Amino acid sequence: MRVYLPSTLVKLADVLAAGQVGPAPLTGYAVTPALREWYAEGDTEELEYAAMTAAARASLRLLAADPAAPPRRVVLAAEVPERIVQWRPGEQERALVQVTAPVRMRQIAAGHVDDEAAADDILAAVKALPAADAGDADAQFTVDGAEGHELLWYATQELGDL
Predict the structure, then answer these.
(1) Local confidence band at 116 (pLDDT 50, 70, 90 cut-offs)
(2) 3-state DSSP assignment of residue 90
(3) What is the pTM of this model?
(4) Cβ distance 5 to 74 under 8 Å?
């Protein structure tokens, strides 16, 4: 099963050094029954893109928690056994799942990372998160603006170069 794991460049360096994403449980995003129901007309590729976008939004929160991290969203796409992925109906986020075991590097299929040119918009989105969470429409617009930047695809052997 494809799961998208939110990360940052700092956390990615830790993953590369440890050879795994962990410890479990891990927050991830995947094509869940709720996502399928919400986006019924979407094909598999569109549903996976929606799950990856949700993981990219979660990456913004990780960046907010680590002001020293470079302002670039990171999402790791992993292929994991379905038995270690738990989805709880009723979760606020349709694609939210929990991965109950560490994810080894060999399970990571690719990385998706913002281009350096997106840094200013990502930083603005991170700074706007508290106001957006409080209901400020202008701040939410700024946060949503981060999604205007497509994440670049990196093969696993390229991740160390980031």
Answers:
(1) very high
(2) coil
(3) 0.93
(4) no
User: What is the sign of the dihedral through the CA atoms of 37, 43, 102 and 85?
Assistant: positive
Separation CA 55–CA 75 (nearest Å): 6
All residues at 6 or more sequence positions from 23 whose CB lies less than 8 Å from its CB, including other chains:
102
Single out the residue of 37, 33, 39, 21 nearest to residue 87, CA to CA: 33
Mean pLDDT over 140-158 rounds to 94
CA atoms within 13 A on the CB side of 27: 15
Distance CA 34, CA 51 (A): 11
- Side-chain-facing half-sphere of 1: CA atoms under 13 Å: 19
Q: Is 96 helix (H, G, I), strand (E, B) or coil?
A: strand
